[in-house]
UniProtKB/TrEMBL annotation:
<feature type="region of interest" description="SAW">
    <location>
        <begin position="138"/>
        <end position="214"/>
    </location>
</feature>
<feature type="region of interest" description="Leucine repeat II (LRII)">
    <location>
        <begin position="3"/>
        <end position="35"/>
    </location>
</feature>
<comment type="similarity">
    <text>Belongs to the GRAS family.</text>
</comment>
<dbReference type="GO" id="GO:0005634">
    <property type="term" value="C:nucleus"/>
</dbReference>
<dbReference type="InterPro" id="IPR005202">
    <property type="entry name" value="TF_GRAS"/>
</dbReference>
<keyword id="KW-0804">Transcription</keyword>
<dbReference type="Pfam" id="PF03514">
    <property type="entry name" value="GRAS"/>
</dbReference>
<protein>
    <submittedName>
        <fullName>Uncharacterized protein</fullName>
    </submittedName>
</protein>
<keyword id="KW-0805">Transcription regulation</keyword>
<keyword id="KW-0539">Nucleus</keyword>
């Protein structure tokens, strides 16, 4: 965390931004409260959420609490990155098929982009997809903790909090394409747009979504 903090501070310095890094540790993210974040009066707030909200889909009350807390911060923008797949169906066969297509695309991506003896690849295959797929397909009730949903579900949910989806600039899309082209397997990576959201896929199968949401700043 200290290394991450220093990189952020150094990057902010190159842009002449006043920046400080304050680490907040929570046993349960649903316990997040406005006063734990030490936001100074007059500060501009932006929120980055990467694969967090999916972990709360199974607990709608906790998800609502987190979103209400974020709303009280009155952020000018919230950037959300999530899994672009529906693993929340109550029907087993639907979850199985969706998980099969998603995992197949991801494993194909790993095979093309990472060495087979890579420890990072082993972690993703065994921990993320091995245990994750078991929970998605075989678990029920409280044990089924991973319940990703697609962008149209998040759109409907965010509108409940008065959030509006913001346009991604052409420079954002161009930058995304530049990043993919740094890798030898970039030709199989697909960058597309669904409405105002960026969809990252592998050989046409959606993998991740990136969206920006606006709150009303006063």
């Amino acid at each position: 965390m200290e290394e991450t903090a220093q990189r952020l501070v150094d990057f902010a310095r190159t842009m002449a931004l006043s920046f400080s890094f304050n680490l907040v540790m929570l046993d349960d993210f649903a316990d997040l409260k406005e006063d734990t974040l030490a936001v100074e009066p007059g500060e501009t707030v932006a929120v980055l959420s990467e694969y967090l909200l999916t972990t709360l889909v199974a607990h709608s009350d906790k998800l609502d609490r987190v979103m209400k807390t974020i709303a009280t911060l009155n952020p000018c923008v919230m950037v959300v990155t999530e899994v672009e797949s529906n693993h929340n169906s109550p029907v087993l066969i639907n979850r199985f098929v969706e998980s099969l297509f998603y995992a197949s695309a991801y494993f194909d991506c790993l095979e093309a982009c990472m060495d087979r003896d890579s420890p990072h690849r082993r972690f993703v295959e065994l921990t993320v997809f091995g245990e994750g797929s078991r929970i998605i397909v075989a678990a029920e009730g409280e044990e089924r903790a991973f319940r990703s949903v697609k962008m149209e579900v998040w759109r409907a949910y965010f509108r409940r909090f008065g959030m509006e989806e913001a346009d991604l600039s052409l420079s954002c899309l161009y930058q995304a394409e530049l990043v993919t082209k740094k890798f030898t397997c970039w030709r199989h990576c697909t960058i597309g747009v669904d409405g105002k959201s960026l969809i990252v896929g592998w050989k046409g199968t959606p993998i991740h979504s990136v969206t920006a949401w606006k709150f009303n700043c006063e």
